[in-house]
Amino acid sequence: MSEPACCVLPCPPQVAFGLAELRRQNGPAAERLLVCPDLASSAQVAARLGLAAPRHGTPQSYALRFLPDCTVVLAAEAVGAMYGLLELADAWRDGVQGGLVDCDRQPHIAQRGIKFNLPLDLRTPSYSDTGEAAQLNIPTIWEVGFWRDFLDEMARDRFNVLTLWNLHPFPSLVRVPEYPEVALDDVWRTTLPFDTTFSLCGEDMLRPAMLEQHEVVKRIGIDGKIAFWRSVMQQAHERGIAVYIFTWNIFTYGAEGKHGITCDQENPVTLDYFRRSVRELVLTYPLLAGIGLTAGENMREGSSVAEREIWLRQAYGEGVADALSLQPGRSVRIIHRAHQTSFTEIHEAWRDHPGPFDLSFKYAIARMYASPTPPFANEALPTVPEGLRLWMTVRNDDIHCYRWGEPAFARAFIRHLPGPERCAGFYLGPDGHTWGNDTLSRQVDPACPQEIQRHWYAFRIWGLLAYNPDLPDGRFTAMLGARLPGVDPERLATAWAAASRIIPTVNRAYWNPLDFQFLPEACHSHPVLDKGFHRVDHLMLGTCMPGTANLSVSEFCAAEAAGGPIAGITPPQVIASLRADADVALTLLAGVGETGDDELARVSDDLRAMALLGRYYAAKLSGALELGRLVRSGDPARREAALNALEEALERWRTYAALADRRYQPRFYTRIGPVDLIALTASVADDLRIARDWPVAPTTTPGGPHA
Question: Staple partner for 241: which of 28, 199, 220, 236, CB 3.0–4.6 Å?
């Protein structure tokens, strides 16, 4: 062939990454590979070789063409070429390269992101920093190797947006000439244990005692910090990943009291400081794609939405404009969260903003793993001003420990997202945990030290299906076979999907929308601001997820007592579904990974844990149902049935907690507080006392006299 081998020179860094991945999987030799990383070369080569021209010319698109002596990647631009190479690498890794055929690809969702609450420093906390995972990861996020491996995984999984969230990141990221005392040298974290008295709105994330009991985990000046984050953004760029920095307002951690800066919305110094900090953030990081912002949590109490938007426009909008006046031709996107504000007021304040501007919405509130068709955007979408699009925040505060994996759920979830005319993209991630290094496992897997590596199957499912929801389940089964040899991949895939249905089923049947209200893995919530452990009476009097066909226990018991047909998904059906999925998973996992400590053993234990948790919730929900029937009928047999179900729930919990505790250590979570599954056994047992003492007279107050 006369065409150049490997790629059309010069080789863009994204193509170089894709080639390296293909070589790592022992893919086709360079002389049998031709890569065209732009529309012009793709068209020319296709014509010269008599190949079908690429069907798509959009960013990230590519076409694969197979000749007897050569594989050709035709792409619209470098990132598309990288994705074409990654598809080849995936096929060789999973042993399905023989099934490759000519194809044309373009992204189903253009922007596929990860939400990462960034614990920069004790003095500039993220929203997750009152949890152990964040504090343990403060040194981690200042390691070059961490971000190299993290970004590699993102690219392999086809994520192309990294959003970094921090309450007030500027002192740890930039030097502001007008406010020289604000920039922070070194990296600190506290050695003070956390408790459950912290606000969940971020106002007291940094207390004097925390500063008094701190340690320096890295010696580095502000110039070194700037160089570090520039290198992170460069690495991201070389993998086709755009980086955004998100803030909350108005927080001044790290700057409070310096140069007259306060959290006061009326303080002109504070407004000027924010504007100049935004300017410096843009100027300091040429590869920064944009800034995300919000009208809460800490803006002046009593201020109107319009007043908040005016402040944000003056601070962030003018700050970006100041920077772009010095760097003309550059594009910096602003993403404005629709949180504690309104689309109308946002549009009014920002209608003449000259740069790219989008909105952001909590698509599933805090429950990514509930329904694949969450209804919460249905009312919001018609109110979005013309010409604006939404980024969907997809919050995972459901599953922190266990390895989830059900392609069918993710595919349905992704297909339900609004189309590109309304939805710019999404970013998924938790507030209640930090996706840095694995801080939960008792024995960290040396092959998967990061959360993105430990949960590789879930990330791969979400990222690949968001790019191409037509990817069949068989491709994921092949991935399991290649990654975890020694087990029937079909059997493992079926068990994994069944175990992964447990928590979504629970969330739909027993709805707690906010992060601090429920951690399904522990049947627990914040002990001060919510219920603490969720007792049997909470399930009896709870509600179901809106927009689903589920009936709550109280709704079902009322309908049952009234007689006649009952429409919807009933608690008995939920119980049967939980038992069935648990049985499928545990049956298929019999003898799989029960010895040793390799990845298969860890995966198998996670799936068993979810299945055992399903058996616990099935028994507990049975107890709640019988308690609800007791209240309606006064039949003492119902109390006996409730006690029998709760006895089973206690035994199921003991088995579940013993297995989970073998793998995962007790932890202090940001939104939930301390979680120790073994210690919670006493609370599980107390459900029996509640059932014994529960009055027959109807009640609508959870706990009643037993709270």
Answer: 236
